[in-house]
Structures
1.
Amino acid sequence: LKSIAIMTSGGDSPGMNAAARAVVRTALYEGVKVFGIYDGYKGMLEDRIVELNSQSVSDIIQRGGTFLGTARCPEFKQEETRKEALKILQSHGIEGLVIIGGDGSLTGGSLLSDLGMPIVGLPGTIDNDVWGSDYTIGADTALNTILDAINKLRDTASAHRRIIVLEVMGRKCGWLAMMAGIAGGAEYVLVPEVKYDLNKICDELKTSYDNGRRYSIVVVAEGVGSAVDIGKEIGEKTGIDTRVTVLGHVQRGGSPTAEDRVKASMLGEKAALALLNGQSNIVFGINEGKVVAIDLHDSVNNNKTLDPELVRLARVLSK
Ligand code: F6P
């Protein structure tokens, strides 16, 4: 291979820069040209493709977001659009592509690979919902942002004897909520993967406040529904002063944690080397601390489940 390209796509996540940097520097180290595609599939279709050098990726490892920019691009679902994209890539002599993104972005990659472009995916999303990998780039940073919020919410909740309902991101996946609940010591965690009984929760909350409890934190994964509605119902049913915080896009930003920087760097190197060694149509993830290669089609065609051990642990420790 003489030249490869790198792009980020879908929702940005902290650590995408570290991964892109590793891809670029590894390819250059191996004597291969690297192009950066700006603003995801949208930029690809608009031919916003620029050759990168080592300096293009300096001073970015510590930054959240993605220096390449990103976008959501529903048009890419059409085969005609993908054929256009392929022609544009080929016009630059691009022979392989690293895509850093979540499920939707990797699905786009899988469809592009069906047209003959060698693709290597890296799981870049705060949601940690990519099948086949325990880890996605950015999830750890987002989790730490949520924990910081929980710590602060505890102070004010306790001062007022309130219930705080906190909505966190994660799309259809409850991983962020569950991990934040365990690490933040939440009383309840509502996730889409597990049924819950709000009446029972309200009865328990009422009893605990009657017995002197000063505050409770209820973490709600966005996939369950609106925390505003859930908070309203809890307030009405318990008669306890309840406030809702929707954390929103603050979860997507910030300087990546050490874990996200190191793992993203490991994954980025593997991705570049795989393409250079003629391997493609895989996603690199991390399982039990080790980098693993997952079939790209398998990864996008399966849904990740929430580890029942986490659910059990959260339940045991909140009682
Ligand atoms: O996939 C990452 C994510 O932050 C989800 O958790 C959330 O549902 C979604 O993206 C928000 O998307 P947007 O930034 O397009 O509003």
2.
Amino acid sequence: MESFKALVAEQADGKPKIGLTRWTDADLPDGDVTVAVEWSSLNYKDGLALTGKGRILRKFPMVPGIDFAGTVTESKSPDFKPGDGVILTGWGVGESWSGGFAERARVKSEWLVPLPDGLGARQAMAVGTAGFTAMLCVMALEGHGIDREREILVTGAAGGVGSVAVRLLANLGYTVAASTGRPEQADYLKSLGASVIVDRNELSQPSKPLTSERWGGAVDTVGGVTLASVLAGTAYGGAVAACGLAGGADLPSTVMPFILRNVALLGVDSVNCPKPRRQEAWARIAKELPAEALDAVTTEITLEELPGKAEDILKGQVRGRTVVRIA
Ligand code: NDP
């Protein structure tokens, strides 16, 4: 049986031990579609998985990698045939089911989304789970209805979700305020369309239950005190799409923004997002994120370089999106 390159996590002393090795199809889980993986990406959750800091990996041996794009090589499903371009994000892949950091993956057909017209596999992974989540956040805000006269805040703006959210919101004509702890990324964020740069420290101190009404809406990737401050400063009738915990999983807030300002807290999950919404989000990504916009946020690395980058993303030192060349 032909072998292929795979980054495999084994369990050693309760921690994952990650190494490049060769697997065969017999090592892959039992799905109905096999994919030649061309591109994967590095997300915050992958950083947690590769370093063993977040107990993300639930099975061993396992190929981590929560997303990938590539071409179908074998299919028992009527929905896909060899040669089809596909994207996978979420569904526990790269957590309890072998994922994208290998030249081949076998998954359930219902988890796959066809590559939309106009989007290549590399572009799809330049978006990846983070960018897809950014689009879900934008859709959540749109569904709620946002006052276009006010600023929309993005926290963790220089990260993966943040960078794509800034670009999407700016493209849609919103005035985007980008909060970052890296002032040296101000020019980068302005190049993505941010009008205003907000120092992360302004939001990371405990705030009063309500502060002056500034944000028409927000995409929050940070959580913790930052999310509480964002809620406190959201204007009457505004909404905050909360998708991340880069700064903490707690929410030291009060009910005041909800009961006195009619503020809505919109939860955003990408892992179990239903298929129709996935397809809608990917179709919009293909239309609204031109290739040059993605190039500006993307760094390319190899599978060999990947383990070294895992710590960097947890330290908040990775800018924008990192695509991983698999084949
Ligand atoms: P990144 O590491 O690329 O971005 C996170 C950004 O948050 C950093 O770049 C940094 O931005 C900021 N940050 C980091 N640490 C802190 C801190 N201690 N306090 C305040 N800000 C901080 O990660 P991703 O964009 O891939 O993911 C962002 C978050 O969203 C993660 O928590 C991730 O788990 C979550 N996520 C959730 C998904 C879902 O389905 N709900 C899907 C994808 C991601 P800056 O330097 O600009 O301040």
3.
Amino acid sequence: MEREHLIKPLLNQRYATVQYGKGVFLYDEHGKAYLDASSGAVTASIGHGVQEIIDAMIEQANKVSFVYRSQFTNEPAERLAKKLSDLAAGNDYWTFFVNSGSEATETAMKIAIQHWQEKGRHGKIKVLSRRMSYHGITLGALSMSGHVGRRRRFIPLLEDFPVVAPPYCYRCPFHMTYPECGIACADDLETAVKRIGAEHIAGFIAEPIVGAAGGAVVPPEGYYQKIKEICERNEILFIADEVMTGIARTGAMFGMEHWGVEPDLIALGKGMSAGYTPIAAAMVKDHVMEPILQGSKLVMAGHTFSANPQSAAVSLAVLDYIEKHDLAKAAEDKGAYLLSRLKELSDRCGMIGDVRGKGLLLAVEFVSDRAGKLPFPSANGVTSRIINKAFDKGLLVYPASGGVDGEGDAVILAPPLVITLDEIDLLVNTFEQTVHEVMLEVM
Ligand code: PLP
């Protein structure tokens, strides 16, 4: 075998080589079709090969692809920042553009800290988060992430920010039931604030719906209203990590709209460009920017490719496409259909413990004993088996961990929002065959 040069996720595995994509399908070098039931990493929300986006890309490339943001501003970036503010609750956000979700959450973290510094509150430097969470792979973002597997190697370098219990009703960390619990998981933020001291806390970050670290975990009604109230009372900025949930994925433009909560800062990525180019963003409310505008007048963040005109033009075209085709509504309607089909499937598959999610961000959690909600031993590698077997059958699904501390198995199903009902039926049938075959192996 020829020696390789590209570092891939698993270095002992042979990867198929993608040739092209169209709609919800990707095709490899042998012409095999794969139904992209995860939109890659919950990213390709408008499907592959959309001509309008390719046209917008070429149009901008014919003008200018790169400028350095300290030398020029550019029209696509200015328009995109305004567009995002128009789409978000309150319509009063500034935006700082970056290139990945990790940079977006880390920039939000830094701006939250800078906000308090500009007000002379230099002790407020921690950004609390939940144990079941993933906010990114760079060290600041990883400090805020509870994802056990991704943290492990770097623990000595990380801050211990994920201290709050997750809103995970399927296996409640407090062994309680909603609504009698009184949303104890939200009260856990208050407990952490009392222990650490609000004078040390700049912000609290949460994914509206937990993604990779839990598998589409939707909090109970009233949770975010309570979280926001605790944050406000303690002068803590609330950061919504909408990297996975943002831009129509859950049936609303922003996930937090489902709970009517306006975050002080928002991190965006993935669906912002639907994968056509790398771009992400930290959105910042007026009142958070105000002390910076009055003070140093300089946001201490940024990358060479920040506010890149090429990426901004692509993102604008993606947002237009999403609005033109009302893909937030499509996510709601098709998500309801896929969820109902998966619930039927769980009645026929003993190893499906839970089916959950919102819009087209759905997940299936696997258990060895449904009544006892017992996870499989990790040595069984159930998530990998499902992913690999589905792949062989031409179906792409995304790994997640179930369980409060990542001890469980789950996969995310989050196809492009343009998927048809027939394609959803194909997805479910292939997924059912996959689950049955894995069940025979592990049960
Ligand atoms: N935040 C959330 C909620 C995510 O799901 C992810 C990626 O999966 C990130 C942040 C990090 O984004 P990226 O992989 O683009 O750095």
4.
Amino acid sequence: TDLDRFIAGLLKAELHLHIEGSLEPELMFALAERNGVTIPYASVEDVRAAYAFSNLQDFLDIYYAGASVLLTEADFHDLAMAYFDRAAADGVRHAEIMFDPQTHTDRGIAFAAVIEGLLSAMAEAEAKHGLTSALILSFLRHLSEEAAFETLAMAEPWLDRIAAVGLDSSEIGHPPSKFARVFAAARAKGLKLVAHAGEEGPPAYVYEALDLLHVDRIDHGNRALEDEALVQRLAGEGMTLTVCPLSNHKLCVVGDLADHPIDHMLAEGLKATINSDDPAYFGGYVADNYRAVARARGLSREALVQLARNSFTGSFLPPEAVAMHL
Ligand code: ES4
Ligand code: ZN
């Protein structure tokens, strides 16, 4: 349709993407075979059938299990290259991708294998598609502050290749305050800061991300809408929210995509963006997210253009590179 073509042709940045969440079932099987790893699924259809979640934790259990097929630098390269090829086809010109080193180093995989595999795919994506990218090292919030500090220490030799640190995994019970000191350390090293907040957690966690972590972006932020003063503050500060419509639907953050608040966010003056989060698990890449929410909410072309603009102005690209994309 016209809308599909318009969305595919809209040049965009993707700011909220977990690279481990782009592991398609077909690649999961191929890597399981290549590496002699056993997975608890008989077929690709069997894997897809397991992707029915009632909350974030349901999903995370399956997502961490899926990552067990990733062992070598080549695996991380192939994973990221598959994502970049798919993103380029969706009109993505710049991607800021999160990776969860602890998911791998806790299984005995070298940090170097993870990051070197991702970096070589990033260079290849730029050469092949002109798609630029940046890395966000994300701490697992269900693990300790000490473990996050150890992960930051492991990253030390590559800090000039890492744009930001992030905070993901099980939100409730693991507030941003738990990571205030490690975020301060990352900030002192010149890294940008992002954190998942207000996906399942209360508005108080969004306040903590702002006041205790001093984040540059909020990942998700849906539940900020419950607090009008917080909405006014986020809008006034021009804080970017990396919203993920299909994720919100699959994880029951919203009951129905027809009730997704993306247009309310824009109407409140919030700097919202559209992203895919974990596309292999949530049923679509970034253009699918634009299409699904545009149809469900009847978004105007102006709104879609605004969302795409926000993705560049909310990115960590230098101002001259942002200007080039607008
Ligand atoms: C995630 Cl959707 C989501 N929320 C929190 N942590 C995550 N890790 C990967 N996807
Ligand atoms: Zn996420």
